[in-house]
Amino acid sequence: xxxxxxxxxxxxxxxxxxxxxxxxxxxxxxxxxxxxxxxxxxxxxxxxxxxxxxxxxxxxxxxxxxxxxxxxxxxxxxxxxxxxxxxxxxxxxxxxxxxxxxxxxxxxxxxxxxxxxxxxxxxxxxxxxxxxxxxxxxxxxxxxxxxxxxxxxxxxxxxxxxxxxxxxxxxxxxxxxxxxxxxxxxxxxxxxxxxxxxxxxxxxxxxxxxxxxxxxxxxxxxxxxxxxxxxxxxxxxxxxxxxxxxxxxxxxxxxxxxxxxxxxxxxxxxxxxxxxxxxxxxxxxxxxxxxxxxxxxxxxxxxxxxxxxxxxxxxxxxxxxxxxxxxxxxxxxxxxxxxxxxxxxxxxxxxxxxxxxxxxxxxxxxxxxxxxxxxxxxxxxxxxxxxxxxxxxxxxxxxxxxxxxxxxxxxxxxxxxxxxxxxxxxxxxxxxxxxxxxxxxxxxxxxxxxxxxxxxxxxxxxxxxxxxx
Length: 469
Description:
By secondary structure, this protein is of the alpha/beta class.
């Protein structure tokens, strides 16, 4: 089987799915659940091979993290969709305006058709299976573009999908930037892209040529606000855990921490203790993930060099130094300013700027002065302070007194806002994102509409006095 595709291959695959859609545009609940069952069996039966492929692509990715962060949520999302699908598909009764009774109003859900899914390298299984779950639940056919930065995972996933699904239902393509460019230029009925904000803008421009609706899951700088009503040691522990997962290569990883100015030293000490506890033999631990490739490692090193050259202090959180093979040790940056790239660009690695603040108003103002983030983390046992943060900031999602875990709640929508993305999916929100939400009005056999038809006269005027009162 030829895994890498040429741009010319994509149109043929797309037309094949579109022709199949035209022959059978809708699918019932049983067929959709069967597809979800097949995808679940695929993931479950090949979990070890998938984890090994991802680890090879990263040059060392914790198998336990792959199981926890990719395989488990992928399976949970599939199980959730299967449990609730029949309820999601059920037409919804809506209210009918008084003047049009006894007519009835309903909303029905239909498949959009052929959807495109662009998968990033950082979670190549979960961010393929999650959108596929939504697309299949809604009754669609899908083309999936895997990341060229995770080639072994892309090759394995293509082989597995080809073995379990017909290409009229799901097809997986691999290839470099030219293939990605051709992929996003196809006239999909919906396109979901997960990746950087800059590339997301290019994807949206390509989709606009066909007026293709898009769901963009981007990134940005997700803040963690440590309130004075929460133990700073525990906040540091939870923030550093979220930051170190996948070595910070997570779109919703805490990007920087806002800490009360008098607690910065305690936060740094607790962060160092956390990293030492999580990775006691850092140089040799299999539990810590490598930076995915040399280009990303060089980018992160350049962020640190820029911050240091402009006067920031780089605090090492391990005593054993750097490990081999691109395993960058977690670090804190103190004294960072807006002139530094580390506070202007998404970090996407194990580097955490700590920004001191005086009052909660100052912390909120700091967040609001920047582009709206994909996630926000608020730590405080003061319910009033938490409500202030939630009410006065805008972000794609929030986790209170924790990091990351809001994305694992299948009944919560996931997505960004502004530069961190648009659209929502997961659970019912994903089903609806990939469905036509069709409004249907049923006229009653007996109705009074003829009273409002021409020729207009005294009768119409008498009724209009009630209409416009």
